[in-house]
Specification:
By secondary structure, the chain is an alpha+beta fold. The chain has helices at 4-34, 41-53, 65-73, 107-126, 143-153, and strands at 58-61, 84-89, 92-102, 129-141. Strands 1, 2, 3 and 4 form a 4-stranded mixed β-sheet that branches. α2 (41-53) packs across α4.
Length: 154
C-alpha cells in the first residue's frame, strides 16, 4: 500500500512529464509558424514556361483569348508566363500549357521532354512536386512561318 509521500512523488513526476511535453509541443508550434517558404503561382508559371521554351520543337507558348486582350491594353505586359497556368495545392503542382510546335517534329517526344524538364526544374527550384503536366497544341508551324509571323507581329 502506497503512503501519501509516495503518492506525492508520483504526482510530481507525472506533472513534470506533462509540463515537458507541453513545452515540446509549444516549441514545435512556434517552429512551424515561423519557418515557411511559399511561392506566388507566377513564379512557378515562369519556371515552367522557361523550361518548356528551352525544348527543341516548342516554338512558343501561346496565351488564350484573355491574354490577347491584356496585351492589347497593356504596354508592359509580362509575356514570360503566357500560355502557362498552374494549380498549386500544398506541395503539389499541376501545370497546363498551350504550345505552338514546329512542323515535322514528334509531338509525343516533345511532350515527354517538356514534362520531364518542367518536373525537374520546379522540384529543383521550389521543392514542389509536379503531379501532372497537360499540354494543348494550339498550332504547328514551320520555323520559317513562325519567324515570319513574329516579324509581322512586330
Amino acid at each position: 500500500m502506497a503512503n501519501d509521500n509516495d503518492k506525492n512523488i508520483f504526482e510530481e513526476v507525472a506533472d513534470n512529464i506533462q509540463k515537458k511535453g507541453d513545452k515540446i509541443k509549444e516549441a514545435e508550434e512556434i517552429e512551424r509558424k515561423t519557418d515557411t517558404l511559399t511561392f506566388d503561382d507566377y513564379v512557378i508559371e515562369k519556371i515552367a514556361a522557361i523550361a518548356a521554351r528551352d525544348i527543341p520543337g516548342v516554338l512558343e507558348l501561346k496565351g488564350g483569348f484573355f491574354s490577347g486582350i491584356t496585351e492589347a491594353f497593356a504596354s508592359n505586359t509580362d509575356t514570360n508566363t503566357q500560355g502557362v497556368s498552374v494549380e498549386v495545392d500544398e506541395n503539389n503542382v499541376v501545370v497546363d500549357l498551350k504550345a505552338i510546335l514546329e512542323y515535322g517534329q514528334s509531338a509525343p517526344r516533345i511532350f515527354t521532354k517538356v514534362k520531364q524538364t518542367i518536373k525537374e526544374k520546379v522540384k529543383e527550384m521550389t521543392g514542389l512536386n509536379v503531379t501532372a503536366v497537360n499540354m494543348k497544341v494550339s498550332d504547328i508551324m514551320t520555323e520559317k512561318e513562325f519567324n515570319q509571323a513574329k516579324a509581322d507581329k512586330n
